[in-house]
Amino acid sequence: MMFRLAKSFAFLVLLIIASFLLLTFVDCQPTFVDNDCSRSANDTADSNYSSRLSVLLNYLSSNSSSNSFYQSSSNGIYGLYLCRGDVSSSICQNCVIAAVEGIKARCSSNETGIIWYDQCTLRYSNVNFFGKPQIVPYTLLTNIQNTSSPDEPNYGAQGLVNLLLDSVPRAKLKFGTRDDESIKRYALAQCSRDLNESSCTRCLVKAKGLVDQCCSGKVGWRVLTPSCSLRYEEYSFYQLPTTPIQPPTPGPIPSKGEKGGGNKSKIAVITTSISVVVIGLLLGFGYYAYLRKRRKRRGETTEEILLPTVEGSYSRRNGGGMSLTDHHTNVDVHHIDLKTIKAATNNFSATNKLGEGGFGPVYKGKMPDGQEIAVKRLSMTSKQGLEEFRTEVMVIVKLQHKNLVRLLGYCLEGDEKLLVYEYLSNTSLDAFLFEKLFYNSLLLYRGILYLHEDSRLKIIHRDLKASNVLLDDEMNPKISDFGTARIFGGNQIEANTERVVGTYGYMAPEYALEGLISIKSDVYSFGILMLEILSAKRNRGFYNPDLASNLIVHAWELWNEGRGDKLIDPNIEDDCPISEALRWIQIALLCVQDDPAERPTMSSVVLMLGSKSVNLPTPLTAPYSAYRGATIFSHSSTSGGETGFMSSDKSTASGTR
């Protein structure tokens, strides 16, 4: 009986492995798209062209196991392949092998040939094309149905593609993707890696021009050229970001007598596939056990802190100082000893004090080399403890952007917890709301977009407000105070928390009342900041004797009545056309809509602010939560616009609806 059970179990395992292996091979099969062959070589004096071409193609194929891009030449024939930037090495190799066989069958008697698969492109020519952008021959593919949205050409495709046209030429691998989950649109762009930045830009712009001629209003399209490609769909068609294989310097072509790496490559694919299946089975069983262990927690909303844990790894340095190390990223945060900081700030003299924040007092200092610094000192009575201190250090040390404040170092000695930043002479935005700062101040959207989409981490700031936007010598804004920031991992788009942190008046309603966090939380705060900048009025403490409302409600009612110009600060009218200011008010109202699904993403906000040709959606309804929030927040115990902390009582919150 036991033997039969063991035999049955072994058969079941073999059956599962065979099924997975079959699915793996099916999934790895590349999808042929199109090819083009030109200039027949039959009439030339060189009768050995096909055999010489075969040597080159086999050599390219032999390199596909370790390179996602490769170029080489042999005996006057030039060739390269390029795998899509998001595919795995095994899929890339399988695609190149298929492309080599496909182009041999279709174009071996031609001097020039190119073949496109969904996962890779392979081309050759008897003319050197390396580093030269080529748009022809090209292939255009488009979906049959048209979109039902009249704004699709601008708000959808144009927005995402324009962002890619800006970022992909500067990317190391000349590849990028963009998405807007709020409207379910996805885009991809790629250039051949032999192109420089300007050549890549020219190719993508010309490719986009081809699309504009044929595919305006289509819900999906693709254009493939020899040097670049663009694709836009209503579904996610690309893989999650992975670490790509770096292309090495091309090596010599093997002699004609060598067989290349075709057979070895096929064997490698089979071996790799089997290994992947076995590992997948083991991971699957492990994941199943993990799910069973968590079954008792089914239906429970949890808050996973994805920020790397800063372990208590301290080493003595600089006469008693400590070094704080993030073991997950091997980031060693620069330590500045307490003695140096005390000397720089005149022992935290009152004359050096710049102000007070939720973290504690902030002091101006001057280092021995003459560099001016700003020192944030954790107050003993501050509600921000060691965890917020660690969060701020480990978040901001991973970020580099001109619209984010720069952390120079930290100090953690005894009871002292200090953060040392670059000194910004013009303090914060809230001190200048009544000045002519609107253009520069609105540039802070770049920093928010970086946090949400372009940094190595997806970060929700959670406390965007005027006092957390600092200004440098040229009045450029820099976002500061990351102690309450939240890091999202992978495809995570939202999270719940029982502990709501931030500043009342800038909090999105779903966050303040229900503890729901998403990138749309920061979008809401940005909308408030826009209204404050345009009106030179503060949302907190706003008072209109004719209306029992706050700034959001006041702005909505004026805009809805066609009197939006009454909201605009007279000081900016000389420098900002009324039509442009009214457009910004509409964008701000889109950002502060009650339903987070109706708010735009920051990439959409960037597009709307930067292009007057983009048609703006109409805000749907009056911000009911603003009326409700004015009452709720008026009873809070915080004051002076400082950061507040509260526990979100889910049942009470839903009872206030």
Automatic annotation (TrEMBL):
Keywords: ATP-binding, Disulfide bond, Glycoprotein, Kinase, Membrane, Nucleotide-binding, Receptor, Repeat, Serine/threonine-protein kinase, Signal, Transferase, Transmembrane, Transmembrane helix
Family annotation (PROSITE patterns): GNK2 (PS51473), PROTEIN_KINASE_DOM (PS50011), PROTEIN_KINASE_ST (PS00108)
Record's keyword annotation contains Transferase: yes
Domain of life: Eukaryota
Catalytic reactions on record: L-seryl-[protein] + ATP = O-phospho-L-seryl-[protein] + ADP + H(+); L-threonyl-[protein] + ATP = O-phospho-L-threonyl-[protein] + ADP + H(+)
Domain Protein kinase intervals: 348-614
Membrane association type: Single-pass membrane protein
Keyword Transmembrane helix assigned: yes
Protein name: non-specific serine/threonine protein kinase
